[in-house]
Amino acid sequence: EISACLVGSEMCIRDRAIMAHGRILFINASQKRDGNTVEYAQALLDGLDFERIDLVDYRMGFFGQDFADDQFEEVFQKMVESDTIVLGSPVYSETMSAAARLLLERLETRPQDDALAGRRFAFFIQSYGPKPLTVESAVASVENVVAPLGMRLIGTASDMVELAELREALESAD
């Protein structure tokens, strides 16, 4: 707790939140910069200081493609500079977005890289009633990438109730 703040002041609450989880990076894996996925993120991160990137603004090739102007390293560096990473994805065709899948696949090709070790990772999918298999598959994909890189999955969400639980996990200093 910051001793120089007034109890209940906005600055005090924000400073305690920053101390609890450090720098937060929200990665929007939707094609829409202001769609429902961003609304979920705003609900999750309300009152917290965070940086946001929209994957639609970055050119990233699929694993095995080699583009001179590939921007994966820029996204990766932003992840390295963060303490908590929140990946949000809409559900398209009963799975996470192609952008989310692409990011995870590119991360998966770096298992020897410990640059993300110790980071907290949170994931949510946004949909109107995703099927249980959709949620299970998306979460398994995230788990299969996060753990080998040494990150700690602090929670996942697929509805507003789970989003509130994820917020509690974000606020935890663990």
Write a brief caption for the model.
The model is unreliable at 1-19 (pLDDT under 50). The relative contact order is 0.16.
Tell me what you see in this structure.
The chain is an alpha/beta fold. The protein has six helices and six strands, in the order αβαβαββαβαβα. Strand 3 and strand 4 form a beta hairpin. Strands 1, 2, 3, 4, 5 and 6 form a six-stranded mixed sheet that branches. The radius of gyration is 16 Å and the shape is globular. It starts with 9 loop residues before the first helix and ends with a helix. Helix 2 (36-45) crosses helix 6 and helix 4 (98-108) packs parallel to helix 5.
**Element order: H for helix, E for strand:** HEHEHEEHEHEH
Shape: globular
Report the strand count.
Answer: 6
C-alpha Rg (nearest Å): 16 Å
N- to C-terminal distance: 15 Å
Characterize the biggest β-sheet: 6 strands, mixed
Mean pLDDT: 87
Return the structural class. Answer: alpha/beta
List the helices and strands and how they pair.
Layout: H1 10-21, E1 24-28, H2 36-45, E2 50-54, H3 72-80, E3 84-92, E4 95-96, H4 98-108, E5 120-126, H5 132-146, E6 152-157, H6 160-171
Parallel strand pairs: 1-2, 1-3, 3-5, 5-6
Antiparallel strand pairs: 3-4
Helix pairs in contact: 2-6, 4-5
What distinguishing features does this structure have?
174 residues, 6-stranded mixed sheet, single chain, 20% strand
